[in-house]
Amino acid sequence: MQSTALVPALILGAVLPIVVFLSKMFFTSKKWDPRGKHCFVTGGSSGAGLALAVLLVKRGAHVSIVARNEERLQKALAELEKHRQTSEQIIKSYSFAVNSEAGSAAAVKAASEAHGGRCPDAFFFCAGASRPQFWVEQTEQLMREDMDATYGAQAYTALVASREMVKQGVKGKLVFVSSVLGYFSIVGYSTYSPGKFAIRGLAEALQSEFKLYDIDVHIAFPGTIFSPGYEQENKVKPKITLKIEETDGGSTPEYVAETILKGIQKGKFHITVDFIGNVFRASTAGSSPRNSYITDLFYGLVGYIALPIWRNSVDATVLSHRQEHHEYLRQKGIIREER
Amino acid sequence: MFFGKKWDPRGRHCFITGGSSGTGLALAIILARNGADVSIVARNEKRLREALEILEEARENGGQVLRAYAYAVDSEAGSQAALKAASEPFGGRCPEALFLCAGAARPSYWVEQTEDTLKQGMQTSYWAQAYTALAGSKEMVKQGVKGKIVFVSSVLAFFSMVGYSPYSPGKFALRGLAESLQSELQLYEIDVHISFPPTIFTPGYQEENKTKPSITLKIEETDGGLTPEQVAAGIYKGVQSGDFHITTGWIGDTFRASTAGSSPRNSYMWDALYAAWGYVFLPAWRKTVDWQVQQHREEHYEYLRNCGFLAM
To answer: What EC number is given for this enzyme (chain A) (predicted)?
Structure first.
């Protein structure tokens, strides 16, 4: 090549991939706009659910929040009203238990009434709770309750929502909320992780199946969220689990909500909220559609080196806890003699 | 990676749910051949009797205890009763190794599900193993038995697609349970293993295909599969080597390596190769699946109209 062509060629060779990369990120498709859309949020009276509802109201959406406790719902509704943008926005609250098909159906029906029977455009499943405890202290009933609180609370509403959207031809969105504990698990979460993994399993199946109907599926995997639920959780959490989580960070419900909404707008399937989440996401993606194959390569490599090291330290902490734990089991009468 | 002694089933009491057919029975035979005491558990008395006869043919020595027990293990009480019965020939000592092969799949469209069918799906894909793991762990801990728990999940715990919405949640849930227990049961020196087989050519598979959505069948057309004997051999090998995640065949290995996250790996070197291959292969494969689903739209809407879900 002539030297005069070399410099422009080099510049083009360096700039073009960057331009292509950036354009793929921003211009491939229109950003999803909540304005004028009816958004249905379960677990919407507190924590991340409420924060999401506030955000959606701010962006001009119609919002229906669903939860069980009437008093909390009223407070939440008042909070939402503060952020109303236009008088046309329909902002309502509904008291229903959504961890059953019947409860979910009633909630969706009620919310659709204010919209002439048309079902919501986007469903955000923020209902869920965590009750970490030792495996050997579980019973069938406790296991079922936890599966209901983690998986059932989202699956049945998703079922009702999907049926309505397909029947009515609404090309909407389902947004599940799992957890980083849906990517990995540790001591204490034997009845929580199964439900959070199950939500992922459902989202993976539906993300494929819903190409039949043009319905989008998104699933968020937040880490620790500093919410009232988190306080409750820590009251019963095993000491060893607390110890392992000592150095963990966490996010506010508002930050999680913002990140989830941004992820939805960008059309992301798996939505993670922080660096650790990104590393886990990239390291467990398998065949799940990725948002960026380039950045995931980076996170995946970091994970390949860092995650085993982290895991080894977690295992070491567990092993060092053995004696204390057996003392605990003796006190509780779960084991008898001195070992 | 495991440079220590291989796990030897000789003289150990192995408890196998779903043990009267398919992978469970194939595993029972391998264990019996290698000198283990074997208890197979299932619901159907007749199938159990037939299975026990087959098992007897695999007997390696006269001292082995080979038994069959008819129990439904998809409840804590049922699992406890089965374990208690199986422990009796051993003076009350609980089994050392649980192989949880109980499970079934009934793939169908999501929009045709109800709360009941979802609960049923979770029952056969998750609870059928979770309660036995619970009852078995509690006994092992109480009795100080440093045993093993082997779950049998599915490649459909690494990914999912159209038709498997009643099945994948339970199989993913099994992985979630195994991941938590692999960490927690180190408190008791109890090992956890979990196998992720692909299609297994069993009577159960024939049943499954009768009601499977046509689009799912179409996508799976070119899939291979394994015999129960192959899957059982893979599980046995993996347990002997101390592998946490056990997969058989390159597809399973590719998925395993590409979704491992922080789960302890068996070989970091091999997994790096499989993961690199998966990074290119899996998205390409996924695109073909998505395309097939999209092509099926018209036919699917016709189906929904015909079954009355949508108005004509």
So the answer is: 1.1.1.102
Query: At A172, which amino acid appears?
Result: G
Asked if the C-beta of B66 comes within 8 angstroms of chain A's C-beta atoms, the answer is: no
A218 DSSP β-pair partners: A175
Beta partners for B17? B41, B100
Cβ contact, residue pair B260, A159, below 8 Å: no
Give me the domain span that covers residue B269: 13-273
Instruction: Cite the DSSP H helix spans in A94-214.
Output: 101-113, 140-147, 153-168, 193-209
Q: Which tokens go with A18?
A: 């960057």
Instruction: Give residues 74 to 93 of B whose Cβ lies within 8 Å of A.
Output: 75-77
Distance in angstroms (rounded) separating the CA atoms of residues A102 and A156: 9
CA atoms in the 13 A half-sphere facing the CB of B6:
9
Provide, as residue numbers in chain B, all residues whose Cβ is less than 8 Å from the Cβ of A200.
Answer: 172
Sign of CA pseudo-dihedral A173, A177, A180, A186 = negative
Pairing verdict, β B37-42 and B97-100: unpaired
Residue A85 lies in a domain: yes
Please tell me chain A's helix, strand, coil percentages from 3-state DSSP, rounded to the nearest 5: 60, 10, 30
Residue of chain A whose Cα is closest to the Cα of B143: A335
| A321 within some domain | no
Q: Which is it for the CA torsion A226, B262, A138, B145, positive or negative?
A: negative
Q: Is residue B244, in this structure, part of any structural domain at all?
A: yes
Residue with tokens 């092992």: B140
Q: Are the beta carbons of B275 and A211 separated by less than 8 Å?
A: no
Residue A273 DSSP SS3 = coil
Task: Tell me, yes or no, whether A19 lies in a domain.
Answer: no
The nearest CA of chain A is from the CA of B285 a distance in Å of 8
Residue A313 lies in a domain: no
Structural domain that includes position A104: 31-277
Determine the Cα–Cα distance for residues A294 and A300; give it in Å rounded to an integer: 10
| 8 A C-beta contact, residue A73 and residue A49 | no
Q: What is the mean pLDDT of each run of 10 residues along chain A (339 residues)?
A: 57 57 56 96 96 98 97 97 96 96 98 97 94 95 96 97 97 97 97 97 98 97 91 92 90 96 96 96 96 94 95 96 95 79
Predicted ipTM > 0.85: yes
Task: Please tell me the predicted confidence (pLDDT) of residue B1.
Answer: 44
- pLDDT tens by residue, A50-105: 999 999 999 999 999 999 999 999 999 999 999 999 999 999 999 999 999 999 99
Q: Mark yes or no for CB contact A212/B159 under 8 Å.
A: no
Closest CA to B181 of A29, A308, A204, A138: A138
Say how many domains are in chain B: 1
| Number of structural domains chain A divides into | 1
CA A91 – CA A331 distance, rounded (Å): 52
| C-alpha distance across the termini of chain B, in Å | 59
Residue carrying the six token digits 């609370």:
A153
Inter-residue contact A66 to A107 (CB < 8 Å): yes
Residue B301 lies in a domain: no
Contacts of B110 in chain A (CB under 8 A): 159, 162, 205-206, 209
Looking at the complex, does the CB of residue B290 fall below 8 Å from at least one CB of chain A? yes
Task: Find the residue in A nearest to B305 (Cα).
Answer: A167
What tens digit of pLDDT does each residue of A130-162 get? 899 999 999 999 999 999 999 999 999 999 999
Whichever domain contains A207, its CATH number is 3.40.50.720
